[in-house]
Amino acid sequence: MTVPHLTGNYAPVTEELTAYELPVTGTIPAELTGWYLRNGPNPHAAASKHWFLGDGMVHGVRLEGGRAVSYRNRWVRTTTFTEGARGRDSRGNRDLVAGVANTHVIRHAGRTLALVESSYPYELTCDLDTVGPHDFDGKLTTAVTAHPKTCPITGELHFFGYDVFEPYLTYHRADAAGNLDVSRTVEVPAATMHHDFNLTAQHVVFMDLPVCFDLESAQAGTGMPFRWNDDYQARLGVLRRDDPYGEIRWFPIDPCYVFHALNAHDEPGRIVLHVMRYPSMWRADSHDFKQATLWRWTIDLVTGTVREEQLDDRVAEFPRIDDRLAGLDTRFGHASVSGSSGALILYDLHKGVSSAHEFGPGRIPAEASFVAADENPGGDGYLMTYLYNADSDRSDLVILDAGELAAPPMATIHLPSRVPYGFHGNWLADG
Ligand SMILES: [Fe+2]
Q1: 195: CA distance to ligand 1 center in Å?
Q2: pTM exceeds 0.90 for this model
Q3: 264 beta partners
Q4: Were 103 and a residue from 146, 197, 222, 277 both cysteine, which residue would form a disulfide, CB within 3.0 to 4.6 Å?
Q5: For the chain, domain boundaries
Q6: In the chain, what percentage of residues exceed pLDDT 90?
């Protein structure tokens, strides 16, 4: 039987490589000194039952003064990797150390963390050695989403954990120094799947959507233990950041699913969210993916209603922004187009238009990170992504000028292997 999530460029690579002084076509901007790290599933000892469940492998490229100094790919040495999956301990408690750490890699308070929503973060070195699980000095009581948000104003890290047992949803905040200073339960009526959430300068917005824990699916063990539920009311939950233990106000919306939010911001009396919205998700089984497009949700805090508008008709995923503008009114965001012919789309949210860089047939980008060219948030920068070439069965790291998106890549860094399709990552500049 063909297993789509283990074939083509979804298939895992089998070796951990280290290569130095990589060949480059074009010119790497000389001001870029740091690491590009991207995480994704790469099943290790046995085939994974779902794309989301493979052991995490981070692929990293070091850039320095116009040179592509090195490439490494390394599995994250979680306890699941080294000892096998454990699930719950002898008392039935969830083992929050066990996990695959396969979804994102971020930096907060000097730590580089590999994340998956079902476990504690795992700290890595930039050379991609695993330091170990990170539980915020023993204070952390839940798993951690793979999509924490760093507030560019306060430096705080806002995040949540969700579980299939109560409490289903818990909100956390760590200060800029990495101290966990808020943890509170968010009441939801069922164990819904929360992959991402939204942060503005004044609010946190949870997305409580109709993909629910499903015991039959869990017992079948053939994928993710969640299914679409026609009877569950989709809702957005608004928490004021200045009252983190206060009431959460819920707003009903039309049924849908969202894995990823682009950004959100406050306006007088309103909160505006931009998200990649699916009409539904996992109706038949958890391998049944639909297609996402860019939508805007405007929460009217006065009338208690939400206006829902589709903004773009091109199917895309992995939305990102210049993260220095997280929670603020960003003009630009971008997302990746996969399928048979790859592209990166740049959304101009103020003008309501989009443009694209078309890579063409058989050339499929991953998530792209915005890489700042200077100290000016929202100013010049680059889009950086791994690009798979089906003809050569290899991958490159490509750097595009975000301001001249249709132009050929400024630099194409040729890697010694392919980088399997994966999830999320970041450019981590030195200093
Ligand atoms: Fe994600």
Answers
A1: 6
A2: yes
A3: 273
A4: 146
A5: 155-311
A6: 89
Distance from Cα 117 to the centre of ligand 1, integer Å = 9
Alpha helix locations (H) across 163-279? 215-220
CA of 273 to the centre of ligand 1 (A): 17
The model's pLDDT over 253-303, given as tens digits with 9 standing for 90+, comes to 999 999 999 999 999 999 999 999 999 999 988 988 889 999 999 999 999
Residues 347, 252, 205: CA angle, nearest 5 degrees:
55
Query: Closest by alpha carbon to 383, among 349, 344, 355?
Result: 344
- Give residue 147 CA to ligand 1 midpoint distance, Å: 7
Whole-number average pLDDT of the chain: 95
Edge-to-edge order in the sheet of strand 257-267: 257-267, 270-278, 293-300, 305-310
**3-state class of 375 per DSSP?**
coil
Q: Find the 102 Cα to ligand 1 centroid distance in Å.
A: 10
- Is there a contact between 385 and 367 (Cβ–Cβ < 8 Å)? yes
Least confident span in 67-76, 85-94, 136-145: 85-94
